[in-house]
Amino acid sequence: MFKDKTAWFSSSVGKGVTSFWVAEGGALSSWKKADYLFSNDASSEDTKRVHHSEDYMKNRATVFHCNFLSACKPRQSVKSVPIGHYVLPPDSIQNEIRVLIGRFIWESDEQVMCEEQKTT
Amino acid sequence: KPASPTKPSNLRCAGCVKHMNEMDSRSFGAVLRSCRFQCDFHLVLQEVEDRFRRSQQLEKTSHNLTHAHINTHGKNREHSTCTNGDNKRSKRGKHRLSHQPSDGCFRLTPLRRPCETYGPDMEKNMHHIHKKKTSEY
Ligand SMILES: [Zn+2]
User: Fold this and answer.
1) I need a surface site. Which of A70, A76, A90, A101 has the fewest CB within 10 A?
2) pLDDT per residue as tens digits for the range B95-135
3) Are B44 and A92 a contacting pair at CB < 8 A?
């Protein structure tokens, strides 16, 4: 699924997600070189570093929430999940965005997953 | 009959419809920027992120400015001009304003004016003082 793609994973991302990426043919790289940047927590130090980097200032380092990959897993396709919904903005501005648009999709996903687990 | 977009919030933009093979962490920003229409989420996201970037940039440049100022201050004290001192003062004024609004404001304004309007005269006075001093010796 992730053949010919390189990703960087924040230390906040669980091992299971990273191994899923590798198992599906994805490669790992540094945060400066990777095509895709994934994090589970914008307040983690390594993600903060990305959000304060020159690349981010130049709009060339969007961090995505790793729940995107969890959403791809059951669908076995990257085309049915819009990655643009899984943007993980800097920690300090998340509340400002929440006030304007409500919950992030990666937050509601978590909730849906929890509810699914409860019913099954 | 083309469907007229009555509710823009229900429309999806490039940031919504493009999938992983069409954009990555490096191109996402450019995709949003080149998109003529943006859904509510991506519009808000871009605006707030841009504001964050501007404030970061501002922090950086102000850091650089203070560093540059310290450097020049040490090297050529003699050449410090009126405008230079003015910048310094207005910056300090802002800091003071936040701590003690009324006092700082009133004290600063008259201090600034003589420097701006009577700059040359002050220089003359300085020379005068200098001459006096030397004659005294
Ligand atoms: Zn959108």
Assistant:
1) A76
2) 443 444 334 333 333 444 443 434 344 444 444 444 444 44
3) no
What is the mean pLDDT of each successive set of 10 residues along chain A, which is 120 residues long?
Answer: 96 96 97 97 97 96 96 91 95 95 80 45
Domain containing A97 — which CATH number? 3.40.50.10190
Q: Is the Cβ pair B25, A96 closer than 8 Å?
A: no
**Does A1 map to a domain?**
no
Q: How many angstroms separate the CA of residue B101 from the nearest CA in chain A?
A: 28
Q: What are phi and psi of B73, to 5 degrees?
A: -60, -45
Q: A115 lies in a domain?
A: yes
Distances (CA, A) of A45 to A41, A50, A60, A91: 9, 9, 19, 11
- Give residue-wise pLDDT tens across range B44-103: 999 999 999 999 888 877 777 766 655 544 444 444 444 444 444 444 444 443 444 334
DSSP B28-59: HHHHHHH-SS--HHHHHHHHHHHHHHHHHHHH
* Structural domain of A58: 6-119
Phi first, then psi, for residue A86 (nearest 5°) are -105, 25
